[in-house]
Amino acid sequence: MSASGSPPTTPEAGDVFVLTAKGVRERHKAEDIRGHDFRQSGFLTPSELRRIRQRHEQFIRALAARLAMFLRLEFTLQLSKVQIVGYQKFIENLPSPTHITLFKTDPLKGVGLLVIPPRFGLTFVDRLLGGPGQAPEEGRDLSEIEIALIDQIATLIITEWCNHWPEMRGLHPSLLGHENNSRFLQTATQDTAMLVLTMYGGIGEQSELIHIVFPYATVEPLMRVLSPSLPGSDAVPARAAKPRWNPE
Description:
By secondary structure, this protein is of the alpha+beta class. 30% of the residues lie in helices and 26% in strands.
């Protein structure tokens, strides 16, 4: 029975009752209700996404300079997108074959991905071996020696990323492995939210997309660093008054 004494009306087929924030029951169509994953509640609001983009724009500028010095060649790097993408959707959109480096940034949790097109990776290899940094006419599978050379670039990229989080002391990057087919990746569950940094890297006239991908578990502590402190949160708490004896 309802509070007024009349029996509650039953929802029609396809309708459900929803309890609003004001404590009122309302009827809504089932298709209008979206599921919510409380494991990733409130993952990156628009303001948080702006702050993390600003931090990574600084990272991109510094990384471009570091790569240019390392390669002793003009290297351009431009941040294209900073977005949230589901893990399954991201790996399905990756071309095959590709060169994926799995990495970790201790003590942060989760496994990140650095995606470099094989043809662009061979451009790095050509330059590291003393060449002008030209891409081959056709892409091909990378040899173990070429992968080891590309790992030098990957280590530089991840190390520079760690250096741009001075608030997180002791970040230590490590490479975990490689993959050339995204279908065999199992670094996160299918519904995991991923922070995807998409950037254009260029050597001469060649320009390719590079992705740096972080799971939710990695980004969550960083967002607490970027979140502005509440007014008065840094103030010294007032000293408690000395208790007085009440003679009564």
